Amino acid sequence: MNKVIVVTGQTATGKTRLALTYAAHNNGELINCDARQIYKYLDIVTGKDLTDHTFYPVDISLPFSVGYYRLEDTNIWLYDIAEPSQYFSSHAYARLASNVVARVLAAGKTPIIIGGSYFYLKHLLYGDSFSEKSHDPILRNQLSAMTLEELSSYLIKLNPAMYESMNNSDRNNSRRLIRRIERVMSGTTRDVFENGYTYTLEKKLGHDALDIEYIGLRHEHREQLTDTIIKRVDNRLKEGAIEEVQRLIEKGYTLSDPGMKTIGCLQLYKHLREGMSLEKARNEWILREVQYAKRQYTFMKQDPHIEWRITA
RNA sequence: CCAGGGAUGGCGGAGUGGUCAAUCGCAACAGACUGUAAAUCUGUCGCCUUCGGGCUGCCAAGGUUCGAAUCCUUGUCCCUGGA
Fold this sequence. Notes:
The structure is a single chain. The protein is of the alpha/beta class. The protein has helices at 15-26, 90-106, 118-126, 137-143, 148-158, 160-164, 168-171, 174-186, 201-205, 222-238, 241-250, 265-273, 278-300, and strands at residues 2-9, 28-32, 55-57, 67-71, 74-77, 110-114, 210-218, 307-310. Helix content is 46%, strand content 14%. It has an eight-stranded mixed beta sheet with strand order 3-4-5-2-6-1-7-8, sandwiched between helices. A hairpin with a 2-residue loop joins strand 4 (67-71) and strand 5 (74-77). The longest helix has 23 residues, at 278-300. The radius of gyration is 20 Å and the shape is globular. 38% of the residues are buried. The chain binds one RNA strand through helix 2, helix 3, helix 7, helix 8 and helix 13.
């Protein structure tokens, strides 16, 4: 039976280190599942673990530059697949990642999916729909001018059941309302997670069954989390995070580009362009990252398959 | 030492006699998550509670008033200008 290893969990828990150990013992290759490391030029801020910056492209005829880097004695896939200005989605991730998983399996190796973007992972492991209808930027743009009340009544008019199925939190979330409207208008109203937490990865790959080892790494408590993140942020600043963001600014990227909203990048942008002090930018970076780590665990702990481990 | 300004819940900051346990923002805590997810959104947020309500409360002490975070007196501390 083909083996697939998944290493997810909170940020700054040493996922890469663990994944590399797995790779060494299982003849594995790493597949990135980090929503920010998919962006080019965001290396230091997102903490890409690269020693050799030679990129080996592989054409899989999708509008992203898929390929791998060499890392220690293995390969790491799905770094640097999109421009910071490029729209990316969980759906695109699931397609790309399952393609790469198939490729690695075909080469007789063990795919090791690694990263803390649980929403992406959820789509890859449990998502069931590969609808060809993509997002509709024009529609989204039009809808984004509407108020919450207008969006709600519009959706109720289009499909009351769809609105009814939303919880209070989502009904106040204009992005979610817009996406529902978009789904209704494109006819993709089917539940992508209709099978709950039943793996759908096999089906996507056309494999019979996969032996999935699914690890989640988390911090023991808040203090440890905070300490680790402080060290990490200071380290990235030392490694040249500011200069990296400066280069992005010089390339012409602005806060309207998706990649620029990355934690750390955003704060350094404010420091470089909006007069925020470096100290304040640093503190906000740390804070946002800690908050993010907590959100990650809230989301992930619902997944019954994750085998949790406390990071050392 | 003189003149003026100010002290509000973990922080910032509204409120200038009743509808104030006190707008709002942040932080914190909990949660949501069907193509932006390191995103976006929701709930709680003085103490106690049988969730009806009860208690303490806006620097301190005293006073005015039916009633004070809000008015008066004194004290303490902070800020600005002048000696």
